[in-house]
Amino acid sequence: MSIDRRRFLCRGAALSAGLLLAPGWRAWAQSAPMLDPAARQARAVRYVEQASAAQDDPAYRAGRRCANCDFFSAGQRCSLFPEHRVSPDGWCMSWTSE
């Protein structure tokens, strides 16, 4: 496998930029407000901050929570609520996993 000099330098520059921006990304992710369970979009998917509070919901299954959902990512972010953070111990009816 041969990597030419230009490709090597471009990849190195991209990696360096990523490393420099990583702390800023974490700060940005933590600066977003927590999702209010009373908000319209949260109520639409029956979001709760503690999965145990959803035990009476027919869509709930034990062990499912935001932290092990495919929509959840670092910084308490959920792709369903890009403007907000969610509780890792929370749950909503859109929970999914491969």
UniProtKB/TrEMBL annotation:
Residues 1-29 form the signal peptide. The keyword NADP does not apply. InterPro entries: High_potential_FeS_prot, HIPIP_sf, TAT_signal. Coiled coil: none annotated. Pfam families: HIPIP (PF01355). PROSITE patterns: HIPIP (PS51373), TAT (PS51318). Residues 29-98 form the High potential iron-sulfur proteins family profile domain. Keywords: 4Fe-4S, Electron transport, Iron, Iron-sulfur, Metal-binding, Signal, Transport. The keyword Cytoplasm does not apply. Belongs to the high-potential iron-sulfur protein (HiPIP) family. Specific class of high-redox-potential 4Fe-4S ferredoxins. Functions in anaerobic electron transport in most purple and in some other photosynthetic bacteria and in at least one genus (Paracoccus) of halophilic, denitrifying bacteria. Homodimer. This is High-potential iron-sulfur protein. It comes from Salinicola endophyticus.
